[in-house]
Amino acid sequence: MEFIVVTGLSGSGKSQAMNCLEDLGYYCIDNLPPALIKNFIELTGQEGKIEKVAFGIDIRGGEFFDDMRDALESLKKAGMNFKVLFLEASDEVLIRRYKETRRVHPLALNGTIPEGIARERTKLMDIRKDADYIVDTSNMKVAQLHEELRNLLSSEEATGFTITIQSFGYKHGIPLDADLVFDLRFIPNPFYLPSLRNLTGNSQKVRDYVMKTQQAQNFVEKVYALIDELIPFYIKEGKAQLVIAFGCTGGQHRSVAMANVFTEMFQQAGRRVLTIHRDL
Q1: Is residue 163's pLDDT more than 50?
Q2: What is the largest CA-CA distance in the chain?
Q3: Domain 2-153 adopts which CATH fold?
Q4: In angstroms, rounded to a whole number, what is the distance separating the alpha carbons of residues 215 and 257?
Q5: Three-state SS letters, 117-142
Q6: Distance (Å, rounded) from C-alpha 29 to C-alpha 47?
Q7: What Cα–Cα distance (Å) separates residue 6 from each residue in 57, 108, 132?
Q8: From the CA atom positions of the chain, what is the Rg in Å?
Q9: Phi-psi region for residue 188, left (φ > 0), alpha (ψ -120 to 50) or beta?
């Protein structure tokens, strides 16, 4: 049986993730006490009728949630193969979502929403560290979240190594889920050319401008060689996804063009690539 544990911060989109997994053919169970996961798997495994299961587990479980790490360790020792998907978002986005829905944060019953979020981040720290997939939904619409999960978890993709390439603007903050971050602000900025200012890095004119300097070409050559050399070691360590972020000032020109360049290079090398232009 193939199964995945979906967890993360309250308000980060776990319900939407479970909906997506259901569309992908997973039998979804939400808010199950972690200690009962093994019992459920043993019961359904005997009948052999369910092939893929997704368990939604979060802080709503109260005291039951505290058993999660022990429960997952027990499953590993029993030789059960599973993945942990951790969803998160920035504090600002989580606060806005709670304000919009008028719901109460489960750890803010006697305090403020920011205090509840801070407590939850602390409680989830160890689980996040051991997660197989970490998805930051701060700047994702529902359709984008579904697309990323399909790429990560569909039966065709699940056993492969995925490279997620993000472009971003430093003035909007560094992506929380980035494994490798590269600063492109050393490249001349197309924003200061009137003919390029209103275009983006998806434009061939902007891309040509970004890539025309020798320092940009050297950067591509050396960084690609470095990442390509590191990928086998990430795979050896059991990592299923590598998130590479390219940043410029606003996330419109240089970072977008460079992310597209690296996407094409990794695709030509036969790698599985997902591209996100976060601030475009």
Answers
A1: yes
A2: 67
A3: Rossmann fold (3.40.50)
A4: 15
A5: HHHHHHHHHHHHHHCCEEEECCCCCH
A6: 18
A7: 6, 22, 11
A8: 21
A9: beta
Residue with tokens 């200061």: 192
Stretch among 209-218, 234-243, 245-254 having the lowest mean pLDDT = 234-243
Sequence letter at residue 258: M
List of residues 6+ apart from 12 with CB closer than 8 A: 87, 88, 89, 94, 137
All CATH 3.40.50.300 domain ranges of the chain, comma separated, are 2-153
The tokens describing 137, both together, are 């939904």
β-bridge partners, 52:
2
Q: Which two tokens stand for residue 97?
A: 């979502």
pTM: 0.58
Instruction: Determine the number of helices (DSSP H) and then strands (DSSP E) in the chain.
Output: 9, 9
Distance CA 66, CA 64 (A): 5
Give every CB contact of residue 227 below 8 A, 6+ residues apart in sequence.
180, 242, 244
Tens-digit pLDDT profile for residues 189-215: 999 999 999 999 999 999 999 999 999
Residues 6+ apart with CB under 8 A from 71: 34, 35, 37, 38
Close Cβ partners of 221 (under 8 Å, ≥ 6 residues apart): none
